[in-house]
Fold each of these.
Amino acid sequence: MALLDAQRITKHFAGITALDGVSLSVDAGEAVGLIGPNGAGKTTFFNCLLGILRPDTGTVTFDDCDITTLPTYRRARLGFGRTFQRMELFAGMSVRDHLLVAERSRLGTGRLWKDLLNLSGPGADERERAEHTLALLGLTDVADRPVEALSLGRGRLVEVGRALMTEPKLLLLDEPSSGLDAQETEALAATLRDVQAARGTAVLLVEHDVEFVRTFASRLYVLDFGTLIAQGPTAEVLADGTVRRAYLGETV
Amino acid sequence: MTDLLTYVIKGVPLGCVFALLAIGLVLTYKTSGVFNLAFGAQAFLAAAVYYDVRVRHGWPTLPAFSFAVLVVSPLVGLLLERLIFRYLRTASPLAKLVSALGLLVALPSIVQLWLGKGQTFGVVGIWWDDNALYRFGDFVLDGKQMAILVCTGAAVVALGLLFRYAPIGLRMRAVVESPRMTELAGVNADRVGGFSWMLSSLFAGLAGVLLAPSFAQLGANDFTTLLVAAIAAAAFARLTSIPLALLGGILLGVGQALLAGYLPPASLLARNLRPSLPFIALFLLLLFWPGLRTATQSKDPMAGVDPPPLPPAAEERSHLLTVGTRVFGVVVFGVLVLLSLTTFSSYWLLIFTQAAVYSTIFLSITVITGMGGQVSLAQATFAGIGAFATAQIVDTWGFAVLPTMLVGALVAAVIGALLAVPALRLGGLFLSLGTLAFALMFQYVLVPMEWVGGGLTPLEMPRPAGLDDDKAFFLFCIAVLAVVSVIVILIRKGTTGQFLDALRGSEVAAQSIGINPVRSKILVFAVSAGIAGLGGALLSMQEGEANPVRFEYTWGLFFVVIVVTLGARTVEGAINAGLGFMLMPEVLKWVGLPASWQFVVFGLGAITYAKYPDGVLEANKRKSLAFIDRHLPKRFRTGPDRGGPGAAAPVAPADVAVPTGGAS
């Protein structure tokens, strides 16, 4: 049974069919890519998976639970972690605080009475877990800097770290390479591969950069005009003529 | 049938005035993203200018009208845009709201100070004869109403033509989409922004002058409640559509006339309901009008290219200085308490007792605005709820007042949570407007009822047993303040505070790690309302009665303004605000100025919020600390020359804002 299973997702916006019966599944520990040209419906699909949009028809199951109508934060508690295409960091917080607040959220310590008894502060093991994640992502040297002072590439790593602290079963990466140069993208891909090897987290990657996808994902889905036009092992899909025409704009 | 039509016709002129203001609100909101709460005050200003030149100086009608509406009003709009709102174009919605709120508090006081305490009776209308009657079949209109109808019609037609045919109209529409995009196309967005502020201010002025003859006497309050009606009409138009704003205003005027016509005039309902229809309409619109939820707040598509804001933890101070300032704060606080208990006269003891009480109330704003990032304009109302609930329970069941005070706070907290549930779907600006509507409704509809405010005479409120002595009561107030301060600090340091920080930083990201935004915000609303309720009960105990005057909505506005000016993020800021609130009138008395100058001082002070979101005092303290730091011996220093740029000492940003004093 797949970890994430989206079945026949359809979404209309004022007469435009953004998604037309798209199905996608991700197994535990697997790295899957979702690619497609601009306007193909990648972001809409992503938002349907995360509960930011509600699909018109279709179902999303995660870990054998139907989560089609759950709000975003409930999905996060079930094991969804995510990063954002346009960085969404907590202004004014340090890098370490980003990880600690995610840790606290995972532990469900958000109870007022615990705050009032001063019981909810991060304990030694929580701090240690944060240190460990910082080291994994190479963020130890900037742990106490406010996130505003970081470069885009490291900011994205903070997002990854924040998501990892919630111990996600599935990490959804929304165009992680956008805004990064080739070198930064390569570094990010390497780090993500390390993370996946170390934690065994399943990853769904929505991405423009074909190189990134080629080196990272073992399986690919290709979306165009709201429908899936191809799916399968990465190398096969990228060699496929239809995909090349739609996505890479090549005449074969 | 003719009755109905008569009432409808009667309501249209007043509705037109609402509509003029609503159109102006929509205009500025669309072109600058500022919801100009000072709009009622601008109408009041125009009316006052018109009154001054027409009645006091005996100008003929036409020059007086032209001067007030066509010269002074646009000039005021231009000044506001040039001096304040131009610089806020890329500021956060919160900063824009707070600045407009500051103006709402400051402007009417400025106008009132200029008008003087004297009589302002007998404003003459602009029609040839105010009382001339004009018959149209069965309907009769007087001169004032004719003037309103004709002027509104002319203004609306002129505006329509402007948008349709004049180049500036097209540019305004472009600026609405994105000022900077428009600038790239070679249009001076600043000039367009200035023009639209002048135009909307002209509408406010027109409304003010047209309505002035209808009031027996010119007063700022009439114009503030007028503003609420205009806000309701603007909300009806979803803050975007000018024709809908016109329609909304007229509908509201007609509704008010219908209520006046059909409700039995002597009933309590008629007495309370009719004048408060605008508040109720606004409240219901905010809760149920479907378009508002999806109405996006004005955003600049080019905001993404802005340089990131300065890191707030950039200024770090040495440990020595941090401890030093804390010790200093505690010592000053302790000395004040000691002096109050020993040498000060009973008058000054009273001042400091009330300062402690108001500091407690202001801590509720630290929670909701400083931590929750929301502006609630109903904190005085929640204080009132706490006070009335406590007084009613003590009065009815004869419970001891001390535990009942906690029940009163709980009642306020529950009502706060109930109010938050629907209002939070709106968020930001609409949440603030919703709390304003709630505050007005509470004051005009509920407080006059016997089971709430106690009817005509204020409810009695005993002091807790053994605290009849003023000094003992003073110590009790300090103790309550200390306990509440510690609670606020614990919440901020704890998970709740961290979650709120995260939500303020990015709501989508906070949700993505499993934080429930609704729960967090309802919690912060309830805690804040509870603290305000506790403070309100304390205030009534001090005064011996739950006096509704202390909890009027205007105080709620002023509370936000003063706390935001002096520091909304720290416990220290709330205590400073409490002291400032009590000491400023004394200072003004000493200088020889009327007490209403405090509204001017703090109102204009709130405009600095955009620049100093931590409060003026906090910002200046940091500046002077940085100065001291530079002149300290090297080993105590934390500045850049200790570890080189960027090698910052591990100081979490939260530490910078940790309060001093109070908590001791």
Amino acid sequence: MKKVLLAALMTIVVLGLNAQTFKTRDGNIYFNPNKNQSNKEYSALSKEATAVLNADKSEVALLVPMKSFHFNNALLEEHFNENYLHTNKYPNGTYKGKLIGFDKSMLAKDGEYKLSSEGTVDMHGAQKPFKSPVTLKVKGGVATFVCNFTIKAEDHNIEIPDLVKPKLSEATPLDATISFKMN
Amino acid sequence: MKRILLISIVGLFLSGSISAQDDLLADLVKEDSSTVKQNITIATFKSTRVINMHSVEMTGEGNLQFMIIHHFGEIWDNSEGGANFARLLGMNSGFANTYMSFDYTPVRWMNLGLAWSGNTSMEGTAKFKWMRQQSGQKNYPLSIASVHVAHLDASEKLDTPNDLYWNRMSFLNQLLIARKFSEAISAQLVPSWVHYNIVPYGNQDLHDIFSVGIGGRVKLSAKQALTFEYSRQLNGYENVIDKSGEIVSYSPNLFSLGYDWDTGGHIFQFFLTNSAYASNIHQLSVNTVKDNLGQWSLGFNLNRSYAIKHKVQTK
């Protein structure tokens, strides 16, 4: 009886160790909501996104504290927090999804791979299905996922006043760069 | 038997931790919520001014702010009679005082500014942030800043031996102690010290004038707020001698009511105040407006900031 239990336990432990997960704490997410992308007043960047990759299941999850977005214009940062994203009430933006076309053997070999990801973005209290191409670059033990995507403010119940609307893109383009060190 | 129980409990724990790993996101959320963060309070006030007086807020790092503070004429002049309707509460009176300034924040804790401060005077300002209200890793209940102003009366030079520019200077040192009590309510305590290098006609040899003020804000919505400020002069307002040699009594009070409106790009602050002067130094030391509400004036602050230093770079 004991032996059976022990064996069961061991398999569970071994299984657990085998699950290949990678974690990072310094993912970068950049965006500029302005229609005119060369207007850098609106440029914002977070360097504090955390992400996990489960290589066996081709699953990813990402969490970014909304207050970690810093804008070139401090007043816009204040508006972002206070008026638009209500970051005291909704402190995090998250993503959970699958990597399509991903195989863990890619991580073992340097190269560039075209993938896509499908999942759910949860931001400002609203969930929205997400689908976008993703590029994976593997080099020297670092796997970097780069994703250029767009998010619509209205999909996440973010109210933009009419006065401000003409200045902003209908769908905000974002760039996410998430690197995992594999050793 | 005991051992089996122990092993199965350990096993349960392990399988538990594995299934937790299964939900990658839950794992991240759990980790995020278990880390203690530094929650720095932002937007104690909408603008760098409560109304006339400085607020504890500072222009953002790497940002340049342009500000106009405009005081119209007195809202009701008894000597004008019916013409007061044409004067439109002082807005059409032909009298106004304007303060225009540029200020820049090279590093997060320091702001430097230059202003045309009305009545042919100019000012240089320096503002320092000493403490930011925050919770989490550190708990600071208050935000503390200080303002230092050097004021120069730049009007046409008189032919008197004493009229050196050095003697035309005056200074203001102010401490700003603020707390954001809730999303809507903020308050600030403002002790001030005005120093005149030379006091016109003796002024009882009074070079230093002290006052204590309070300021506050109540938010009506995300973009609108009501504000007020009150400052009380502690000395040098009764029976002082002014420039023309007359004995005058100034009003020791500075009182203003305001309405903040944030349009998304600009911040407008409309106000009613009992001082026509544009400079804080005059408002806090030689305010001539007494209890007569007709002598109060309407005005507005308008400011806009520009990102000069681009901290965030694109690829």
Amino acid sequence: MQKKNWKAWLYLLPAIAFLSVFMVYPLIDVFVYSFEEGYNSASQTFWGTGLYNYSYVLHDPYFLQAVKNTFILVIITVPVSTGLALLISLGLNSIRRLRDFFQTVFFLPYVTNTLAVGMVFMILFKKTPYSDGLINLLIRFFGGQSVDFIDGPYWAKLLVMCIYTVWVVMPFKILILTSALASVPQDYYNAARVDGTPPLRIFTRITLPMIAPMVFYLVITGFIGAFKAYSDEVAIFGTNLNAAGMNTIVGYVYDMLYGDSGGYPSYASAAALILFAIVLTITVINLMISRKSTQF
Amino acid sequence: MKVVLDHLTKKFPNRSKKGGDVIAVNDFTFEIPDGKLIGLLGPSGCGKSTTLNLICGLETPTEGRIFFGEDDVTHLPPENRGVGLVFQNYALYPHMTVLQNILFPLQNLKGEARPSKEEMRRRAEEAARLVQIDMLLDRRPSELSGGQQQRVAIARALVKTPRVLLLDEPLSNLDARLRLQTREEIRRIQRETGVTTIFVTHDQEEAMSISDLIIVMKDGFVHQIGKPQTVYDEPRNLFVATFLGTPQINLFEGRVENGRLYIGQDAVMKVDCADREKLTVGIRPEGFVLQEDGPLCCALQAVEVMGRDHSVVSTHPAAISTTIRSIIPSEETPQMKSGSVRFRLKPFKTYLFDAGTGERIPFSAV
């Protein structure tokens, strides 16, 4: 028994070593930096320890803007994308002809490069000296006022951001949900039919509870993913997100490290840990809700 | 409620491009009398589940009509037919408790037909009591044994007092002992409710033991309908004879010459039918009687002890299967290990079939 144990650890050693060096150690380091005032990575020096970094970050208007942006993004895009994905999956599940074709179409964004998609959105939304963008053409066609979606009012930028995020995250959700729907045994539907269950009731009382674990999985990973949003913003608004007022928490961390105002690993670490605390809290709440409602 | 199938046919389009449609149910015409327990029996792929789905409305027939009593239900959707269906794997909703599962069909009712909450609860509890699961109402299906799940499924099917109860392979997911118990249960529940019940099975013993009538099917055709004992004693053709009975009926190549039935070189009995060059002789295992100067001479292979009876395994050159199995009461079994063994045949356990069509040839021994 003892010998066997020893062998098991030996087999695990490469993974443990790798993870310790590249995952666990940096994590601990980030934790340590976040309490060290004015840490300098070049000289490996700092002035003192304390909660100063947290205080600074929490009073930084850029950080507060980033938190606001991130929360709005999360609260809007997670329910909208999950709901839309569920609708599309239900549609896909109920058609026979062209199902593969539509499945491919809906899955395309998943395999497309984020920055390439960003370019497409620029063409759709960006105002240039030559064109107002396709969406503005449409708005004007229907008699509306053209809006600058990329450099214009906050709500317009946020709208583009949300549409973009929803569009990018949906393919994966559709993929998961269509397979979840397909895995509900036909017998349940037959039983419901023999019992004369109306379609809406079949959906709410049978389909939804049966795929609930998958929906919760998508909501939880969706929350985590949306909190970590950054590259999508860069794709649309460029690298100077603070100037555009569209920064996210991860964007703020990145800027603190490498941006024009960068070189502050202590602030970055503090911001990263605040993000971690937020994500952890929300995930725990999510898990508690999902445990309660998917017990069977 | 009596159920009448009138020239019912169901064709499925063939998946592959070649070949015509697959005919799952071919021109069924029969009447199921009110309040009886009927076993639809046949090997897998014979169309029995399709028949059940046609009766409950999950499939629509290609041709023909279905009547419940005097009502033509051929084109009614399942919910308007008043059928209760028990699925092979029970199809209990895993996220609902037993009570919620049983209540579900009642909660679907609308308007006039919808009972009050208390009435629903009362009827659900009554159904649960009938199948003896009234102490498990708050459990979820995953916390029940297979037999208990089966009962819940039956209660769910019965709670809306269906005109016809349909059971698809109700016992196939249960272990051997539970199967015996549950089939008694089904019989009891059917007797108590008096609901016309049709159940599908591939297990002939199961069908024979509890059915009032059995319908033997193969390849989409009905081969015989009748009381279990009648079908067993008077099989219409070779398929029915081989399908019913364990151990299986023993088959031999035989001929009739000068009013004598020959199995190989052995003239086994005098018969009153016309001479035939070639026919198939079927003898039930219990149709053999040990007799020292018996006409059928077989080479003994083994004697298997089964308690009440012994199973004598032997071979004969004219036998179609490799071994012949005969059931002999244990006190008559000889104490021998090898050599030849001679049998006399019981005429009413011996059947003659046309070697080509498999149709039964009537005869009587003289």
